[in-house]
């Protein structure tokens, strides 16, 4: 199918983009990589009358590490992160996550800001950016505001953004040298969205665990973190993980088993990282 008719705008500055979004109102949509929006438009599940293309705004492609954080322009593509064209303040977690998103063609166009604004809990960036406690900056004609990703994501395809707000950057706190990370994605085949995705951040004081694709937003596995604490992964029986993940997610049956195994594999991978450090 083809999308319904729309008018195309390509502003060169953030100020022009937010002015357009404000003036054009509810009928306008931001387009970045188009990797989520265009399929939806082709199916006529969305019929915006105006598209505001943000890929011609140089500021949104700029990234830098300043002090104890990495600042990533919203139009940074998954490929730029995967290929190390931007600094990775997490010691490789961001590049690893980016490399697992869809196929290479999708990664050359899809963007960090687009993925967060789309808010699909089985996508990489919502779970990873929740785990690392990233903060987005959103701009509108009213000015800018900072929103932690953990508060940005309201539910499936739903965020705290106003219709005329534009994510302009994502700030990621740098990992200290004692953090070990792992991300395990369970998908039917490479290039597909996750059926389960666990991120482990292991520190000497204990592990922080996040799970994607389990509920409509990424879930922090508090009960599982307490059960795991600093224990070696090999000492934690799968049955114990199943029980803890059930308490955290309220999942059942096959789905629960899938998530528990994904968490177990992520814990083992984090431990391997620790051994190699
Ligand atoms: C076949 C296929 C497989 C895929 N597999 C995966 C996968 O395994 N993992 C994964 O994470 N993703 C996957 N994706 C999605 C892909 O990563 C998209 O690139 C991403 O979800 C959206 O980014 P985008 O830049 O293309 O956004 P767009 O499609 O341009 O926009 C998506 C939404 O975000 C809004 N938006 C975009 N940028 C901004 C902004 N800066 N501020 C405010 N709103 C904005 C748009 O208005 C729209 O509502 C897949 C996509 C396809 C087609």
Protein architecture, described:
With 277 residues, the chain is of the alpha+beta class. It has three domains: 47 residues, 2-Layer Sandwich (Uridine Diphospho-n-acetylenolpyruvylglucosamine Reductase, domain 2); 115 residues, Uridine Diphospho-n-acetylenolpyruvylglucosamine Reductase, domain 3 (2-Layer Sandwich); 97 residues, Enolase-like, domain 1. Helices cover 35% and strands 25% of the residues. It contains eleven helices and 14 strands. The strands form four sheets. The chain has a five-stranded antiparallel sheet with strand order 4-5-10-6-7. It has a four-stranded antiparallel sheet with strand order 11-12-13-14, with helices on both faces. β6 and β7 form a beta hairpin. α9 packs antiparallel against α10 and α10 crosses α11. The chain is globular. It starts with 6 loop residues before the first strand and ends with a helix. The model has no long low-confidence stretch (mean pLDDT 95). The structure holds flavin-adenine dinucleotide (FAD). The site of flavin-adenine dinucleotide has 31 residues, from β2, α2, α5, α6 and α7.
